[in-house]
Structure formats: structure tokens, C-alpha cells
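Project outcomes to date are best conveyed with an example. Our students and postdoctoral researchers have been running inverse folding experiments weekly, and each run begins with a structure described purely in C-alpha cells. The record below, which covers 472 residues, was selected by the lab manager from last quarter's runs and is presented without edits.
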């Protein structure tokens, strides 16, 4: 890989930090999500209820253990570490006049610890952890007040950390809400709790629009505060294939791709693709977009595209959908040619190279793989974790990534697999869906010693980094 390639690992604040009330932190949406399970959605409460399990309250206690954990990352050879800033540590309710100094101080120390080991921090501003108050008071990103709150939060972060943090992303996996029929991403992306009579899809388009504006304003601010800052989008890249070569299946896949990735079009190119207006008109949707918004989008296009890659999807044309509308709940069918993880996620390394080429040729921006990993059950045997399945998954994906760079000429800044260390799963709230290269002795109820154990994948990844991707 290129000489300066950034190998590292990724986590998000709400999935690791715990300490949900420490240092003046406010309540985020993650703090009211109970534990779910495979196929069991996480219940969202109005406020935490005594006796119920909220796994993000404890995470893996990274708030207290970050010094030892970062030392382990350094031992693996990390050149960078991706995490997020918990918005509620900085603005506990999201709309205060002044930030919380104790929260700011925590990240001063965290980023300084990274630097001490020569690790570049890569920071997401909003990773599924909106202040709950912004959801209840303003309806999340339905409101322009929340745009202002995000821009202010971003400004405070850029001003405070710009000397130490050069790489930023605005909204994590902003396009997950394309699955608007599932309430989970709607809440995590945009802070939307839908009323029964609300049109989920129309509300999604409006909220996403305001996030695009918020993101674009943050990009512009970052460049004013410090022209050396690089601010990216964060797209969940899940390529969508046609089930067959039948022309209508191929057309259905094209429609699905343009729907799932118009988010990237707006953020990378600074404008909506033409089909969106036509689609809204046909559906009778009204989305409030001002001329000032359009100007902000143009001026605030991102510097690079950060993306996650876990799996691909497949669609087929159905007779009852002659206009090829994409609805992830009904359009997606299993791909008979790829295996699946224990959680049903399709395993498709070639899809990573395909997705990288698709994005690079569409958006003409540098790319950064900021998540890729394998959620699996791990077993500790004689104090060791033999996670060959994770090594196989990562090896196959890194090999495809390298082809995209070496053979296809794609500019890729780095690779941060999910996750350096075991974390709380975002979709299920489980601990046992483990992604880490470092095992954390803790169960779904937060019980355990918290001890860290290096998995076999730790040593494998160390050798990959040391050989700059030669020795897989
Ligand atoms: C991405 C998120 O969706 O995938 C992470 O950015 C998340 O926050 C990861 O943890 C894996 O998903 P899950 O639901 O298995 O934790």
C-alpha cells in the first residue's frame, strides 16, 4: 500500500465509553435504547427505567480505560484511530449557550493519548448519539433548530481540537435511513420518532436534507477555522446487485443504487440528482429546500468520502412494483452465491472493490474505509481467542481493497476495521456480537471482569500493518 497509508481501527463513543452520566454528560438517544437481540429490535424508552438493561450506559468503560486500550492499539501498530465525540458530553442537552468544559477536557486527553503513540485521531461528529432533548423538544432533524445546534457543536469541536484532529466526518452512515420502513435507523441517523399518521419516507427526505445542510455548513466552517482540516461524509456502502441478468432486475438494481446513494451525490457533488425532484413530485412529497440551502450544499461539498463496508444486497423486479420504487423491506432478496454471518449479513469481499470503484467513478473524491468487520460469537479457550473466521473475513476484504488501490488506481487514505476492540453492537445492543481484535471479558448484561485479551486477529493485523499490507 502507499507509504502514508493509514492503518487503524474504529469505534464510536456511545458503543465504548459508558460512563453515561459522568463529567456532566447529558442523555443521548443511545442511553434510552434497551438491549435487543438477533432479530429482536431494541425498545426505545422515553427515559431510562429502573431495572431495564441499557448497554450503552456502560459500553466497555472506555471512558476510564482509554489509556490502556490505546496502548494496545499502538502495540498493533495503529497509525490512526477512529472514534466519535459524544455530543452530550459537550452539549448535554444539545442547545445550551456554552459547552461543557469537562466534556471537552475528556477529548483533549483522549486525543493527546493517541498522539503520544503517533496515532492520528479520525473523528465523527455525530455517530448515532443525538442528545435526547433535541429529539423530544424539536423532533430531531425535522427542525432547523437542530441544524443550528449541530453547526455550533461542530464549530466548538473544530476550534478546540483543530491542532490535533485533522480528519473529521459529519454524520455516520447518513444513508442508513434509506431503510425508512425500519424505525431504528430513522432514530439513530436523524432523531426521528414517527407519529402513526406521518409518512415515514417523506419525513426521511426532509430530515436528511437538513442534515445535508448541517453537514455542508460544518464543512465550510472547518475550512475557515483551519484550511488544513479534511471533512468527509460517512456512507454505508452496501452495493445492490440484480438477482439475474433479466433487464428488469438490472433496472431494479440501478434504481436501488441511486436511491441508497443520492445521499453521497448531495454531499460529494453539492447538489441533488435530477431524479429526486421527479420522484418527490410523483409521490406528492413536499421537502422544504431554500435557495440558501442549495448554495450551502454547493459550497460545503465534502473533502473525501468515508464509508463502511460489511456486505452487499440483492434485489429483483416484482410485478407489483412496475415503477421500480426501492423499499429495502420488500425489494431485497437473498443472494444465493454468497455465505452469511451468524447474524445473516452476506459476506462478499468482492463487493468492497465493486463499491469502491462505483463511488470513485461517480464522486471523484478520495475514499477512506472507516468500518469493515465481522460480528461473530467468540470463545475464550485457555485464555485465548482463536478467531480464524474473523481473520479470513478481514484478509479477503483487505485483498480486494488492495486490488482497488493497486490495480484500479483508487485514492484510498486508510483502513480502520470495525472494531479495534469489542464494543456494544449498535443494532442489537449485544456484547456477544463481537467485532474486536481485542476481546473484552463482559457479557450482554455488563457483567465480567472487563479484562482485555488479544485475539489471534490482533497478531494477524499487527503483521499486516508492519508489512504495509504485503503479508496477509
Ligand atoms: C455500522 C455502525 O452500522 O455498523 C456501527 O456505524 C455498528 O456503529 C456497525 O456497530 C456494526 O453494526 P452492528 O449493528 O452489528 O453493531
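After processing, the design step wrote out the following sequence:
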Amino acid at each position: 500500500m502507499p507509504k502514508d497509508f493509514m492503518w487503524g481501527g474504529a469505534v464510536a463513543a456511545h458503543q465504548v465509553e459508558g460512563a453515561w452520566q459522568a463529567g456532566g454528560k447529558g442523555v443521548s438517544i443511545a442511553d434510552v435504547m434497551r438491549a435487543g437481540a438477533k432479530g429482536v429490535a431494541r425498545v426505545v424508552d422515553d427515559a431510562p427505567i429502573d431495572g431495564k438493561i441499557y448497554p450503552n450506559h456502560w459500553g466497555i468503560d472506555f471512558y476510564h480505560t482509554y489509556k490502556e486500550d490505546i496502548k494496545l492499539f499502538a502495540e498493533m501498530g495503529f497509525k490512526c484511530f477512529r472514534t466519535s465525540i459524544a455530543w452530550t458530553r459537550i452539549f448535554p442537552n444539545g442547545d445550551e449557550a456554552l459547552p461543557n468544559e469537562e466534556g471537552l477536557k475528556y477529548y483533549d486527553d483522549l486525543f493527546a493519548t493517541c498522539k503520544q503513540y503517533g496515532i492520528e485521531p479520525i473523528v465523527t461528529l455525530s455517530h448515532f448519539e443525538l442528545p435526547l432533548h433535541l429529539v423530544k423538544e424539536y423532533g430531531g432533524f425535522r427542525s432547523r433548530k437542530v441544524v443550528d445546534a449541530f453547526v455550533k457543536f461542530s464549530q466548538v469541536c473544530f476550534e478546540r481540537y483543530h491542532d490535533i484532529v485533522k480528519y473529521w466526518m459529519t454524520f455516520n452512515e447518513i444513508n442508513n435511513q434509506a431503510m425508512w420502513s425500519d424505525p431504528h435507523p430513522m432514530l439513530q441517523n436523524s432523531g426521528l420518532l414517527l407519529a402513526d399518521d406521518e409518512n415515514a419516507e417523506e419525513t426521511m427526505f426532509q430530515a436528511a436534507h437538513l442534515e445535508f445542510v448541517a453537514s455542508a455548513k460544518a464543512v465550510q466552517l472547518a475550512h475557515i477555522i483551519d484550511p488544513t482540516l479534511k471533512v468527509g461524509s460517512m456512507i454505508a456502502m452496501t452495493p445492490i446487485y440484480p438477482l439475474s441478468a433479466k433487464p428488469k432486475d438490472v433496472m431494479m438494481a440501478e434504481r436501488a443504487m441511486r436511491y441508497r446513494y443520492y445521499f453521497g451525490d448531495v454531499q460529494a457533488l453539492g447538489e441533488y440528482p435530477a431524479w429526486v425532484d421527479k420522484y418527490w413530485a410523483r409521490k406528492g412529497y413536499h421537502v422544504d429546500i431554500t435557495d440558501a440551502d442549495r448554495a450551502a450544499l454547493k459550497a460545503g461539498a465534502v473533502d473525501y468520502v468515508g464509508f463502511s463496508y460489511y456486505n452487499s444486497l440483492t434485489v429483483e423486479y416484482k410485478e407489483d412494483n412496475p415503477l421500480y420504487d426501492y423499499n429495502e423491506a420488500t425489494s431485497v432478496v437473498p443472494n444465493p452465491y454468497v455465505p452469511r454471518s451468524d447474524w445473516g449479513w452476506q459476506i462478499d469481499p468482492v463487493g468492497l472493490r465493486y463499491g469502491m470503484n462505483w463511488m470513485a467513478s461517480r464522486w471523484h473524491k478520495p475514499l477512506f474505509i472507516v468500518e469493515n468487520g465481522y460480528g461473530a460469537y467468540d470463545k475464550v479457550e485457555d485464555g485465548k481467542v482463536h478467531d480464524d473466521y474473523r481473520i479470513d473475513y478481514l484478509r479477503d476484504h483487505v485483498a480486494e481493497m488492495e486490488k482497488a488501490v493497486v490495480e484500479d488506481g483508487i485514492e484510498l487514505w486508510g483502513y480502520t476495521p470495525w472494531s479495534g476492540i469489542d464494543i456494544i453492537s449498535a443494532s442489537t445492543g449485544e456484547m456477544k456480537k463481537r467485532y474486536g481484535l481485542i476481546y473484552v471479558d463482559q457479557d450482554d448484561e455488563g457483567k465480567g471482569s472487563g479484562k482485555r485479551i488479544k485475539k489471534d486477529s490482533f497478531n494477524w493485523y499487527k503483521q499486516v500493518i508492519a508489512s504495509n499490507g504485503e503479508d496477509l
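The chain has one domain: 6-466. The mean pLDDT is 97. The training component of this project remains on track.
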